[in-house]
Amino acid sequence: MANSPVETVRTTSDKLLLLLAAVLVVLGVAAFYAFALQSFYVRLGALIAGVALGAIVALMSQSGKRFLAFAKDAYREVGKVVWPTRKEATQTTAIVFAFVVVMALYLWLTDKVIEWSVFSLILGWK
């Protein structure tokens, strides 16, 4: 198992950006509850605006930029995946179900043999 490096926020500007992002999200949540007398859509708009602005500010930090690069790489890798055809997926599913049924029968039979041997042969119960 490889050790993954722990990433920390090192610069003051990154810390301030992340703090500002957190404050914006908290303000969005607070606005949602503060506008209790307003319509639901106004409250929801305030919440979404706070979270969206917080996310935008967070993505402007070094940590956010690294996250965006990672997300782009991950999305690119998903495009390289060779997905099974419908026939392959159906066959694999059928094999798994058949294996489950065989294992269930085996475990049921083993349980009954152990039950019979313990209760009938060893303890003499009928």
Automatic annotation (TrEMBL):
Q: Quaternary arrangement and interactors, per the entry?
A: Component of the Sec protein translocase complex. Heterotrimer consisting of SecY, SecE and SecG subunits. The heterotrimers can form oligomers, although 1 heterotrimer is thought to be able to translocate proteins. Interacts with the ribosome. Interacts with SecDF, and other proteins may be involved. Interacts with SecA.
Q: Which Pfam families match?
A: SecE (PF00584)
Q: Which InterPro entries match?
A: SecE_bac, SecE_sf, Translocase_SecE/Sec61-g
| GO BP of this protein | intracellular protein transmembrane transport; protein secretion; protein targeting; protein transport by the Sec complex
Q: What function is annotated for this protein? A: Essential subunit of the Sec protein translocation channel SecYEG. Clamps together the 2 halves of SecY. May contact the channel plug during translocation.
Transmembrane ranges, per UniProt, are 16-35, 41-60, 89-109
Where found, per UniProt?
A: Membrane
For this chain, the family text in UniProt reads: Belongs to the SecE/SEC61-gamma family.
Name assigned to this protein: Protein translocase subunit SecE
What keywords appear on the UniProt entry?
Cell membrane, Membrane, Protein transport, Translocation, Transmembrane, Transmembrane helix, Transport
Can you name one GO molecular function term for this protein? protein transmembrane transporter activity
Q: Give the CC-aspect GO terms.
A: plasma membrane
